[in-house]
Amino acid sequence: MQTNNSLSLANPHPPQLNWAQKLSLALGALGGLILLVAIAAPSDLNMQSWLWPSLGLLTASGLLYTYFTYKDKPAGIKNDGNFFSSLSHRGVVGWVLGIIITGFYVLLYYFESYLGFNENGANTGLVQMFDPLSMFLKGKAASQWFVYGVLYTVAILVMGVKFIVKYRHNKYQVLRTISVMFFQLAFAFLIPEILEGLNSDKAYFAKDMKNMWPLNYYFFEDWHLDNMLSGGGLGMFMLVLGIAMIFIISPILTYFYGKRWYCSWVCGCGGLAETAGDPFRHLSSKKLIAWKIERWMIYAVLAIIIFVTGMVLYTYFTGQAQILFLNTYTLRSAYGFWIGAAFSGVIGVGFYPILGSRVWCRFGCPMAAILGLQQRFFSRFRITTNGGQCISCGNCSTYCEMGIDVRWYAQRGQNIVRASCVGCGICSAVCPRGVLRLENGPVNEDRFGEPKPIIIGRDEVGILS
Amino acid sequence: MKILIIGNGIAGITAARHIRKNSDHEIIVISGETDHFYSRTALMYIFMGHMRFEETKPYEDWFWMKNRIQLYRAWVETVDTDQKHVILDNGKSMSYDKLIIATGSSSNYFGWPGQDLKGVQGLYNMMDLEELEKNAQHCKHAVIVGGGLIGIELGEMLHSRHIPVTFLIREDSYWNNVLPPGESAMVSKHIREHGFNLITSKNLGEIIGDERGCVTGIKIKETGEEIECDLVGITAGVHPNIEFIKSSKIDTNRGVLVNHYLETNIPDVYAIGDCAEFKEPIAGRRPIEQVWYTGRMQGEVLAQNIVGNRQPYRPGPWFNSAKFLDIEYQTYGMVMPKLKEGEESLYWEHPDGKMCVHIVYQPADKKFIGINTFGIRMRHHLFDQWLREEQSVEYVLRNLRAANFDPEFCKMYEREIIQQYNQQTGSSVYLQSKRSFSSVLSFLKK
Q1: Rounded to an integer, what distance in angstroms lies between the CA atom of residue A62 and that of residue A70?
Q2: Cβ(A421)–Cβ(A402) under 8 Å?
Q3: Are A428 and A437 in contact (CB under 8 A)?
Q4: Residue A261 maps to a domain
Q5: Domain ranges of chain B
Q6: How far is the C-alpha of B445 from the C-alpha of A417, rounded, in Å?
Q7: With contact defined as beta carbons under 8 Å apart, do A131 and A125 qualify?
Q8: Nearest C-alpha in B relative to A460
Q9: Rounded to whole angstroms, how far apart are CA atoms A164 and B153?
Q10: Dihedrals phi, psi of B76, to nearest 5 degrees
Q11: Most C-beta atoms within 10 A of its C-beta, which of A29, A115, A322, B45?
Q12: Is B407 on the interface with A (CB under 8 A)?
């Protein structure tokens, strides 16, 4: 027998979809097709009246699919067939989807004119399609970022509903998902768009109120600082809030609750990963080597952004752009291109179906790196292991989107205290034996759970270490 | 010293790991089943597509070489304790200084007519899972015979592939030879809710096949009724997998006989896990313990014995867990299917029928005996401690919330449970402790 081969590869039974589920998915395909046509259509074709049909079809598709998938199933863990499905296990569907999303991100970041964005005149194509909604919210024509914001928010809302129904038996999951949906809709989308409309004479400054430095890497750039400083009350509010978030609010919250207060309850990147990315969470690598790569990469990105920001602030206060052989403008634009766009956007989301849903959060996000260091060394948060109840089945590790080998700790009866843990709570949810619990407790040696006997359940005589 | 371990399941591998932690002995693990250790309890998840085989391996493949634990893929055919070597199915022999037998279990077949037909199988090991992949491929209807933990797992597996399942059990309610009536009824209801056809109080008469030797149906013993099916899962318990030892000088009964130090009658030969049988059972426990946790604990203890820190196997308070479709189960202490003399019980069930808590105690001195909990997770550390301290039932109830291990924000029912106790006994116990981690630690620090 070839034990190294997955039995699933030989599985002749892909998950069965009934006609209602297929019909639901077909509606979504139709909605997506409209968007695609808008991208490819000739520039004189106005598709504005197709916006609502398209968004409506996409939304209806997600909701109906959710309804028909879960209506007859009792509440409980629903991971059947994840490793058989072409979509969720790097099959043809997964790869095609990955290429489509990646392609969209490439257009979005580098070729916005292909999406119909026109800086000096009327929009065409896809961006034009979103003009009416943009006019309604802020009295301005749409940009490619507005299109992106709408689609992103719709994805989090619709897939959020699916996630809630899937995990309806687990109140932590339900509340957490409502939270990310709310923060995306209100703080990342509606409020900034409306505020921008109300302050249309003001220059752009950090719109996404929950997006703090260093995730929002241009916070300290001169144009942004100037915009805020000259942005009146709102500008000053954003400046003070931004700095307070970084140095006061975030450390306090992370001390009490771990980085989950942000990464899996508030953050927009996390929001998409937790909702639309949920079908791909098991694709993250749990190998030790992946953890090693992760640590090098994420802290390297953190070091780079701190360095770049330092340079940027130097320029802001001295007016000097050149330091020895380095030009701070070149530096910041290189960071924006390679990390801000290519890594967090194109790879971060485009590669969901290949590398799992938290590639950016795990390997790149400097915000996650900072919160993670704090979580590891100075926080009340940990995942507790329930005595000797672990059966080493591997569900926790498999469904950890951050690639933490949760089982490694659980089977030793050790608590999980890891910088990367975003506190999504899925390891605890999928555990069949009730072994894992996210909790906040005193910061002391018990946090790691090591001084206690390694595995309880027998009288300790020998000291096992 | 050369230590040979037969079997790479949880008992054998735990022994190997702990011997390595505490010594530099040469360690060889032989298995014919798989190249690497995997979690047997996760077999069902491979079939259901929750994981692949890869994911069920608790250690990456490099782990073994790094820790100098040699893995050898073969079946052991005979053991020669005089020559101190074993003979393998590939004709080779392997010598040892110390031998650990950790060969687990085999499925029980009770000599039913037709039990050798194609499509009849148990579910215990990787070979069974591969067999099931074949048998399930064109299966229209499956019958599962025997209602224990493996039976319901097999049912859930087939169900995930949309195969209709008939569940034939000899008890009048699911697993009520282990579970008390309340819990058993609740799980039975849950099984039916999932669409299984649960037939109770019936035995398997015979298995019927066609001229090609394939299963076509079964016949119920009591009624003679026939049920058409093309897969028969036999899950009527397991027995120690020790056929190959019978010809040796090692004493066996149902399992390999061992003393409390896990030593057999032959010096330097030990047995642990499912295949070991205690000559004198440990007080209050069965002579053969076929549970993941006991296999692991025995592996730990034996490792200590082998590295010179000799000590008996002294399991602490009993604990176990399982999951019945969507309902999780944990137990701490001894909750018997029928109350023993001098015992009283508190059974609370949530109106939705997916949660219950069953506490057994002695009314005379109010001593807490054990708890079954379904759909509510409880803290092992606290119950382990309270059982060792022989706390009273009222102490446990007062502090029940500290033992709650459910995810944050989940609704908690300790007040309802205590209220029921007060009504039942006329006491006035009230909830004292909180669920906070500090409150938990305050118990453990004592």
Answers
A1: 12
A2: yes
A3: yes
A4: no
A5: 2-106+239-306, 120-236, 319-444
A6: 21
A7: no
A8: B314
A9: 26
A10: -85, 130
A11: B45
A12: yes
Place of tokens 């209801």: B189
Instruction: Report the candidate in B418, B192, B293 with the shortest Cα–Cα distance to residue A387.
Output: B293
Parent domain of A154: 15-73+111-194
Q: Is B319 on the interface with A (CB under 8 A)?
A: yes
Contact partners, residue A454, CB within 8 Å, separation at least 6: A412, A413, A414, A464, A465
Q: Does some domain include residue A386?
A: yes
- Here the tokens at position B303 are 């490792």
Cα A362 to the center of its chain, rounded Å: 10
| pLDDT tens per residue, range B13-69 | 999 999 999 999 999 999 999 999 999 999 999 999 999 999 999 999 999 999 999
Report CA Rg, chain A. Answer: 23
Average pLDDT over residues B312-317: 92
What is the bridge-based pairing of β-strands A322-323 and B120-121? unpaired
- Say whether A395 and B45 touch across the interface (CB within 8 A): yes
Q: Please identify, among A173, A194, A215, the residue that sits at the C-terminal boundary of a domain.
A: A194
Going through A118-186 in order, the beta strands assigned E by DSSP cover none
Number of H helices, E strands in chain B: 11, 25
Give the whole-angstrom CA distance, residue B378 versus residue B381.
Answer: 9
Residue whose entry in the numeric block shows the structure tokens 């896809």? A126
Class of domain B2-106+239-306: alpha beta
User: Which pair of tokens denotes residue A295?
Assistant: 């640590």
Provide the ipTM: 0.95
Round to whole Å and give the CA distance between B337 and B137.
Answer: 38
Report residue B254 as tokens.
Answer: 């149902």
Give pLDDT tens digits for A30-53: 999 999 999 888 878 888 999 999
Q: Judge whether A370 lies within some domain.
A: no
Report strand pairing: A326-327 vs A322-323: antiparallel
Query: How far is the C-alpha of A366 from the C-alpha of A355, rounded, in Å?
Result: 19
E runs forming strands in B54-104: 69-73, 76-80, 85-88, 93-95, 98-101
Distances in Å between the Cα of A85 and the Cα atoms of A81, A280, B51 are: 6, 11, 12
Structural domain total, chain A? 2
**Which of B50, B60, B125, B410 is best to mutate for the A interface (most A CBs within 10 A)?**
B50
Query: From the CB of residue A68, how many other CB atoms can be counted at a distance below 10 Å?
Result: 18
Give the type of residue at A70. Answer: Y
State which CATH number among 3.90.1150.180, 3.40.190.10, 3.20.20.10, 3.30.390.30 fits the domain covering B319-444: 3.30.390.30
Q: Do domains B120-236 and B319-444 have the same CATH topology?
A: no
Model confidence over B234-276: pLDDT tens digits?
A: 999 999 999 999 999 999 999 999 999 999 999 999 999 999 9
> What are the structure tokens assigned to A421, written together?
């843990």
Residue A360 lies in a domain: no
CATH no., domain B120-236? 3.50.50.60
Residue of chain A with shortest Cα separation from B411: A171
Of A77, A84, A397, nearest in space to B46 by CA: A84
Q: Which residues of A touch B405 (CB under 8 A)?
A: 386, 434, 437
Contact between chains at B380 and A388 (C-beta distance less than 8 A): yes
The CATH number of residue A443's host domain is 3.30.70.20
Specify the DSSP element, H or E, that contains A179: helix A171-182
